[in-house]
Amino acid sequence: MKRILLKSLSAEVETRLKDEITSGRLHPGSSISIADLAEQFGTSVTPVRDAVHKLASIGFVNVLPRKEIRVASLDRRKLRHVFDIRIALEGLAIREATKYIPGAALERAGQTLDQAEAKYASSADIADLLPHDSLIHDLIVEHCDNEMLITLMRGFHDLSSWAQQTVIRFEPLAVAKALPEHKQILAAMRARDAARAEKALREHLESSLERALAHLTE
Predict the structure, then answer these.
(1) Is 79 helix (H, G, I), strand (E, B) or coil?
(2) CA–CA separation, 14 and 200 (whole Å)
């Protein structure tokens, strides 16, 4: 019973620490102290150490010589790999979602994007667009009707979020530039044109990648 409890605590620490990284609150290169995190989370060092080792195994942190731990960064190569996988997985998912997503859900998405666009036009505040930046991508996952694919995409979600935050950090206006691209994807889905929807999605993700690559070194 104690081992189960410890494992659950380690998983909770992993989730919280990963959220700090993917949200950008912990910047790439930031030093991580296991003792400080244990104090912050109110735990012993053991679950924090376990969480850090798990995050290191999937690329979110680097364990350096002398046990120094730093938040990993997304270089050009790693970012390309993330987007290559996103294009492959979401491309497959959108072909399915375009067939199955209810018309009412598409209508609501269109209204939401139109309202966000109008609000941004009057305020010029990116904060008005941020809550809706993943709307189309979430719809694709929710309605692709392929459970194995959904599992793969959700398992990849954290790396995708991290990549997206990297894009936004370097190019804050990326969210505004992505809005018309999202609306093109939605228009193709509303027309039930899976090929056009996949093409629009690929072009959007490739554009998002290029917006970040412009600011990254090798």
Answers:
(1) helix
(2) 35
Output the six-digit token pair for 183. 């609306």
Residues 6+ apart with CB under 8 A from 158: 18, 22, 60
DSSP code at position 60: S
Those residues whose C-beta lies under 8 Å from the C-beta of residue 183, and which sit 6 or more positions away, are 110, 113, 117
Interatomic CA distance for residues 139 and 58, integer angstroms = 26
The string of pLDDT tens digits covering residues 120-162 is: 999 999 989 988 999 999 999 999 989 999 988 887 888 888 8
Report the alpha-carbon distance of residue 92 to residue 194 in Å, rounded: 10
Task: Using alpha carbons, list the distances in angstroms from residue 208 to 142, 162, 213.
Answer: 22, 13, 9
% of the chain beyond a pLDDT of 90: 44
Q: Are 215 and 173 in contact (CB under 8 A)?
A: no
